[in-house]
């Protein structure tokens, strides 16, 4: 079994995978105070170690400070079997970004997973802390993408940058298109607005292909956002990055052990 750890800007997600299938998930909020964060991290790792026979750990991170702390703690549990994407594991996809090192490893892993599992060309829409649109060409190359603030970032910025708008702590479905309260107005703007934006960007990006791209949707708010989008997507895969991490481990590490 494989333990995959995806370190994002707001959360750290843990997944136990067996034959590429996610059998257990855990989540750690990045906003927790240091002592609580450390305690919960150790608790999650202990729970995994007691319940599952983990062969290796693969880490994908976009937060260097969190990576340093988590890698140190994880290494105590799984000595010699911890692999960091971008360092120990390279994503085997041609990166056509102007500065290749500027692309988040999670975006490359998602592109690689979509290419491998669903085919090319592909358009990956990730509803995470930031909403990203990543393009894989017919030849299987990572071409680049689009980044916009995510759902929680948008809600938080409205609260922090305005005098009278309330904080929306719970991200939920708006009661109607036209909000009758300020909170519902914000939620309607977020969900209906981002859905319309996503539909429009998918259409605009797709027009640049000779062959219609496979549209793959992933990220923490996948199911909610997909229900508001009018454009039909080809695949909803909330675990796309985890699947990519599993594919990387199997194709690169296992091949060296044979």
Structure description:
The structure is a single chain. By secondary structure, this protein is α/β, with parallel strands linked by helices. It has seven helices and ten strands. The strands form two sheets. Strands 3-2-1-4-5 form a five-stranded mixed β-sheet, with helices on both faces. α1 crosses α2 and α3 packs across α7. The longest helix has 25 residues. The protein is globular and about 55 Å long.
Question: Characteristics of this structure?
Answer:
Nucleotidyltransferase, domain 5, five-stranded mixed beta sheet, 258 residues, alpha/beta
- Rg: 19 Å
How far is it from the N-terminal to the C-terminal residue, by CA?
A: 17 Å
CATH architecture designation of the largest domain: 2-Layer Sandwich
Strand order of the largest sheet: 3-2-1-4-5
Percent of residues in β-strands: 15-25%
Q: Could you describe the largest sheet, including whether it forms a barrel? A: 5 strands, mixed
Task: Give the proportion of residues in helices.
Answer: 40-55%
Shape label: globular
Tally of individual helices: 7
Q: Tally the structural domains.
A: 2
The CATH C-level name of the largest domain is Alpha Beta
Secondary structure class reads alpha/beta
- Poorly predicted spans: none
CATH fold type of the largest domain = Nucleotidyltransferase, domain 5
């Amino acid at each position: 079994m494989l333990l995959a750890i995806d370190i994002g800007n707001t959360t750290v997600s843990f997944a136990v995978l067996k034959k590429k299938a996610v059998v257990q998930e855990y989540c750690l909020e990045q906003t927790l105070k240091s002592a609580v964060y450390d305690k919960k991290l150790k608790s999650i790792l202990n729970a995994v170690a007691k319940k599952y026979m983990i062969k290796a750990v693969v880490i994908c991170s976009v937060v260097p400070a969190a990576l340093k702390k988590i890698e140190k703690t994880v290494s105590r549990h799984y000595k010699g079997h911890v692999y960091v994407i971008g360092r120990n594991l390279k994503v085997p996809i041609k990166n056509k970004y102007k500065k290749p090192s500027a692309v988040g490893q999670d975006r490359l892993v998602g592109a690689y997973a979509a290419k491998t599992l669903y085919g090319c060309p592909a358009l990956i829409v990730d509803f995470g802390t930031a909403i990203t649109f990543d393009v894989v060409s017919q030849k299987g190359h990572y071409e680049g993408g689009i980044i916009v603030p995510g759902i929680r970032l948008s809600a938080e910025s409205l609260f922090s940058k305005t005098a009278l708008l309330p904080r929306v702590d719970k991200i939920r479905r708006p009661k109607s298109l036209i909000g009758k309260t300020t909170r519902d107005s914000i939620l309607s703007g977020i969900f209906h607005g981002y859905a319309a934006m996503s539909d429009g960007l998918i259409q605009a990006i797709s027009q640049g292909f000779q062959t219609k791209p496979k549209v793959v949707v992933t990220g923490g708010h996948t199911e909610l956002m997909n229900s508001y989008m009018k454009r039909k997507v080809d695949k909803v895969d909330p675990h796309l990055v985890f699947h990519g991490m599993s594919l990387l481990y199997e194709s690169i590490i296992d091949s060296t052990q044979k």
